[in-house]
Write a structure and sequence with these properties.
- Helices cover 66% and strands 0% of the residues.
- It is an all-alpha fold.
- It is elongated.
- It has one domain.
- Keywords: Membrane, Transmembrane, Transmembrane helix.
- Pfam families: DUF7144 (PF23636).
- This is DUF7144 domain-containing protein.
């Protein structure tokens, strides 16, 4: 104990100080994943609304899809998934473990759903699948860094 009454280390730091955080070199990827999830949620919502309001917009008709489903049902699925992805994206930015897990599951499901949607809108579906892969990587490998920043 020093004269001030608190325990000190040899380097002058008190033992009550928080330890130095681990490297946050990949924190940018986690923030990127959270923001991309929010954007992807918005993209899914737009895709769903377009499918509900104007099924003739897509390159391939309902009969040309991998999965036989009408665009109205497809649109509502996209809108529902969009709400979940946006919520999980904000959770990832807050460093929540549940949001990382939900984000990984939803990104994998999004990639699978967009694989089935590929004939209807090929370029857009390919972009979304690529973003899904990046989100899964960032959340699975480096997702815990956002939580460390909160501590």
């Amino acid at each position: 104990m020093n004269a001030m009454g608190d325990a000190s280390t040899a380097h002058g730091r008190t033992t009550h100080e928080r330890p130095e955080p681990q490297s946050f070199g990949w924190l940018g990827w986690v923030v990127f994943a959270g923001v991309i999830m929010i954007l992807m949620g918005a993209f899914h919502a737009i895709t769903g609304i377009v499918a509900i309001l104007d099924p003739g917009f897509y390159v391939v008709g309902q009969d040309g899809l991998v999965v036989s489903v009408n665009y109205n049902a497809w649109g509502w699925v996209h809108v529902g998934v969009a709400a979940l992805v946006i919520l999980a994206g904000f959770g990832v930015l807050a460093g929540q473990l549940w949001a990382r897990i939900v984000g990984i599951v939803l990104a994998v499901l999004s990639a699978i759903v967009n694989l089935a949607f590929l004939p209807a809108y090929p370029v857009w579906a390919t972009i979304i699948i690529a973003l899904d892969v990046v989100v899964v990587y960032a959340l699975a490998v480096h997702g815990g860094e956002a939580k460390q920043l909160q501590e």
